[in-house]
Amino acid sequence: MSRISSAGIEVSIEEEVEEVLKKEVTPFGNSAKVGCPKRHLGKKAYLVVCKE
Asked: Could you say which residues of the chain have pLDDT below 50?
């Protein structure tokens, strides 16, 4: 189980975590994206956005 907590917010991920990535959000047309390696295609992912 992975647990993330922050000022009144607590998140628990009760799944086996394969990898943790730290990436920058980049522009993509009228939207934005966070890239990750192709080896993760089709897998479930969670995105946690941090305050600057």
From this structure: none
